[in-house]
Amino acid sequence: MKLKDFIEKGQVRKASKDVLLIKSLIITAENDLKFLEKINIDDISARKIMSNYYDVLRSIVESMSIIEGYKIYSHEAFTYFLKEKGEEIISEKFDRFRKIRNKINYYGGNISAEEVKENIEEIKEIIKKLKTKYLNHTNL
Q1: What distance in Å separates the CA atoms of residue 48 and residue 1, rounded to the nearest whole number?
Q2: CA nearest 57: which of 39, 30, 80, 17?
Q3: pTM over 0.70
Q4: Which of 51, 127, 132, 139 is the most buried (most CB within 10 A)?
Q5: Is 13 within 8 Å of 69 (Cβ atoms)?
Q6: Residues ≥6 apart with Cβ < 8 Å to 68
Q7: C-alpha dihedral over 58, 63, 69, 72, to 10 degrees?
Q8: Domain residue ranges in the chain
Q9: Domain 3-134: top CATH class
């Protein structure tokens, strides 16, 4: 699939670049990261923490898509957006995290605290890279 397939299905639409929304998403993501850093990761909190870290990553990718003039309504479409930006490895990781989140949120899946800790480190590295490369002030 390609991003254009999601556009044809109406799951991605052309939109104007909304700088206030972009900045709001970035600030919210940064605040969420600060909050999540304070929570102890154990086998009880692991599910929610994993889901929330994924949501922060998705917000960062959503900010990128808005800069490019897209409003994306499908989490899967974000994977293809990243691929078209040339971020093949990040797109694969994003899709893996999306599937973990879906398993947790929709199918009652579980995840260990240790796996969450490993995933969090990857997510934080991805967020840092994407913010530096795509969300600096010259892009906004």
Answers
A1: 30
A2: 30
A3: yes
A4: 127
A5: no
A6: 81
A7: 20
A8: 3-134
A9: mainly alpha
